[in-house]
Design a protein that fits this description.
CATH topology of the largest domain in chain A: Phosphoribosyl-aminoimidazole Synthetase, Chain A, domain 2
Order of helices and strands of chain A: HEEEHEHEEEHHHEHEHHEEE
Pfam families (chains A, B): AIRS
Strand content of chain A: 25-35%
CATH architecture of the largest domain in chain A: Alpha-Beta Complex
Organism (chains A, B): Paractinoplanes durhamensis
Shape of chain A: globular
Strand order of the largest sheet of chain A: 8-10-7-11-9-12
Oligomer: homodimer
Number of helices of chain A: 9
EC number (chains A, B): 2.7.4.16
GO molecular function (chains A, B): kinase activity
Pathway (chains A, B): Cofactor biosynthesis; thiamine diphosphate biosynthesis; thiamine diphosphate from thiamine phosphate: step 1/1
Radius of gyration of chain A: 20 Å
Structural class of chain A: alpha+beta
CATH superfamily of the largest domain in chain A: PurM-like C-terminal domain
Distance between the termini of chain A: 37 Å
Chain lengths: 312, 312
């Protein structure tokens, strides 16, 4: 049954039936707006959009997977501010001949990923469109802490990483070459494993800056360097190339460090901490902050692409 | 110069330069998330999406107009909860060959409409897409009041309207028939005049239910009737057909009440109030709430379409 068959309001009813309201939801879907708790009198908000063919392909991922990915991309931005996600709102544009079940499964994926951090899908909008598009806004709660911004890194700080990089990019490359294995890498692309708790934990432990790695470690760390007016060096010896990633890179004739250092969409978090502060659980040192500008790898310029530009 | 020429980050810099941060913005664009004041420990949030060809046409409206309309559609939802809008987030998808200036002008329109109510564009995301798409999320502050939901209308209540209906629909019909005048109606389509202040005012004066009329008065009042388990009757003698609208309808062989009662996109507000309560400024009585179900016009079924379905 297509979306056109059941109509906008029929689809909304089916989608809302897939959602669960968590404890932060004071008024859920179904009205002109939702009402969400903002206990510390501030709300963190972030928006990310996924476009078919650009951010996902229906032949590579199920609707459930894409729901998980769309939610993860947004929830990770909230975590990267040091906040706890509370709610998602979703604008969904789709061709009218799309199966209604696809939209319902997408909602299930969004709701399930949000539930991992106690957040809920509280609202949204739908429209027909020739291009399947999913725009998600995430809200979050800072728990009384200042937000951890990109501009606070200081020379002498440690650069640290929570979560993994390169896995989603390797999975993407594998799928784009027509392969379906290794399964662990393909699954990493389909559903990122985001270290959500590491964000607020970093804030509690005095992180001086933080960012969600959505476009590639070097490019995103470059945003910290630019905003903080510092130079950042990433050490390759801090990374272990997983065996399956090394094998896949060898088979495809690629350098696995291009995935690890410049691949996006795992939604790892990068943060800087004052030197000498013990890193919180889940964080490992991968570099240092220096006087200067730009990002280097083992103190040398990186010759590959640093990440992804959504218009090029 | 196209978006592709200047790239994602170049475009973000240009767009952000068009924005102004209002007093509710604690951290504006440029980080993983924005931080917005939520003084009463709750935040109202709503999302609306506009798709080219479906919600707007570039040959009918300037980018500035479309920015105003996209913001208005969302800000009106916040007002319809009885809240004051504080912030907008915008997901923008466009073909890479779109002129960068178009995107900049869109940002100016969004920012200017938000500024009418003291709100600001605080964040967003961009992606290339074959379909120009603008998804906006609005946040708002309830000022300590309960939200005014759709489900609170009681038999005996007055149905009241703030703002105008039918103007945008008339302008749309005029444009779609290839005309450009009357200018007042065409302009009403291009830039709705939303009675933002009437929303919080209605909440303060005890409105029992409220909705933003985005799809058509009868259809949207029908949502109040359905959520409140009541019947609502709209009286046509409460409406004055403006001279230009009557003339345009006559020239096109149409019934102007189809515009007034079933045309969307003016973003008027409809609300119910207990009988005997003086209506606040800007509100006028247009009907009554009864026991029963459904919406009638002059106590009879309406034979035309009640409004708009985005998938049909």
């Amino acid at each position: 049954m297509s979306i056109a068959d059941i109509g906008e309001f029929g689809l909304i009813a089916r989608v809302v039936a897939r959602l669960e309201n968590g404890p932060k939801v004071l008024l859920g879907p179904g009205d002109d707006g939702a009402v969400v708790a903002a206990p510390d009198r501030r709300v963190v908000a972030s928006t990310d959009v996924l476009v078919e063919g650009r951010h996902f392909r229906r032949d590579w991922c199920t609707a459930l997977d894409i729901g998980h990915r769309a939610a993860a991309a947004n929830l990770a931005d909230i975590a990267a501010m040091g906040a706890e996600p509370t709610a998602l709102l979703v604008a969904f544009c789709a061709p009218a001949d799309l199966a209604a079940e696809w939209a319902e499964d997408l909602a299930s994926g969004l709701s399930a990923e949000a539930a991992l951090v106690g957040a809920s899908v509280v609202g949204g909008d739908m429209s027909s469109s020739p291009t399947l598009t999913i725009a998600v806004t995430a809200l979050g709660d800072l728990g009384g802490r200042p937000p951890v911004v990109r501009g606070g890194a200081q020379p002498g700080d440690i650069l640290a990483l929570a979560g993994r990089t390169g896995h989603a990019a390797a999975g993407y490359t594998i799928l784009s070459r027509g392969f379906r294995t290794p399964k662990a890498l393909v699954e990493a692309y389909r559903r990122p494993e985001v270290p959500y708790a590491a964000g607020p934990l970093a804030a509690q432990h005095g992180a001086t800056s933080m960012i969600d790695i959505s476009d590639g470690l070097l490019q995103d760390v470059g945003h910290i360097a630019a905003a903080s007016l510092v130079a950042i060096d990433v050490r390759t010896d801090a990374f272990t190339v997983p065996g399956q990633m090394r094998d896949a890179a060898t088979a495809l004739g690629l350098d696995p460090f291009q995935w690890l250092l410049a691949g996006g969409e795992d939604h790892a978090l990068a943060a800087t901490f004052p030197a000498g502060v013990p890193l919180p659980e889940g964080w490992q040192e991968i570099g240092r902050v220096f006087d200067g500008a730009g990002v280097t790898v083992d103190r040398k310029p990186w010759s590959g692409a640093p990440g992804w530009d959504h218009f090029r």
